[in-house]
Design goal:
With 107 residues, this protein is of the alpha/beta class. The chain has helices spanning 13-24, 44-50, 65-75, 95-100; strands at 3-9, 31-37, 54-57, 81-85. Helix 1 runs parallel beside helix 2 (44-50).
């Protein structure tokens, strides 16, 4: 099972690396990561790019929480989409796998 993870961020340099490192260590490996950045002025985008994250930009004056998430979901190429805040950290390697398990094909 594969999925896209959409992360909305603005100046999350302090946290984004830990989130992306946690995603890298998930048991589920076929993951597309999309960062929707709303004009960060710190190293958020550079850190995300170093993890191979796809960057989507939304101008600060067009930002709303919903609009930025909709933009990220629209860019996703996988059927399943997970939304993650830039400042959360998966602490278990099966976080994503467990989250998506109810959507698996049982037939």
């Amino acid at each position: 099972m594969n999925c896209s993870i959409v992360i909305r961020a603005y100046n999350e340099e302090r946290h984004i690396g830990r989130l992306l490192e946690g995603i890298r260590h998930q048991n589920l490996k076929n993951v597309e990561i999309i960062l929707v950045d709303s004009g960060s002025t710190d190293a958020t985008v550079a850190v995300a790019e170093s993890f191979g994250t796809r960057i989507v930009r939304i101008p600060s004056d067009e930002f709303t929480f919903g609009r930025s998430l909709n933009l990220g979901v629209r860019e996703a190429t996988c059927e399943l989409v997970v939304i993650a805040s830039a400042h959360v950290y998966p602490v278990y390697p099966d976080w994503l796998e467990t989250l998506l398990r109810p959507f698996g094909d049982e037939g």
